[in-house]
Specification:
single chain, mainly beta, 1 helix, 5 strands
């Protein structure tokens, strides 16, 4: 009965996935398509393979441009396909 109550923190919810990628499209309002490349060896032949995945990320201020290098984090669903949110812009497009 005398147990302290705790508030929910990010550690209670579990660690959120973080990805880095390049903005491929900003045609939608407050949404950017981010292309993330992962490199991993082939299970049998050990040659490094490059896999690309496209994520739709929420960009609240519409300040992303195509070619920007960004960091996105997993979040609650914003729409049917959008489950990632912009955290920071690492490098602006040249």
């Amino acid at each position: 009965m005398g147990e302290p109550t705790t508030t929910a923190t990010s550690t209670d919810r579990g660690a959120r996935k973080v990805r880095e990628g390049v903005v491929a499209s900003t045609a939608m309002d407050r949404t950017a398509v981010v292309v993330v490349e992962t490199r991993k060896p082939h299970p049998l032949y050990k040659k490094t393979m490059v896999r690309t995945r496209r994520f739709q990320a929420h960009d609240e201020n519409n300040d992303l441009r195509v070619g920007d290098r960004v960091r996105i984090v997993e979040t609650r669903p914003y729409s049917k396909h959008k489950r990632w949110r912009l955290v920071e812009i690492l490098e602006r497009a040249k």
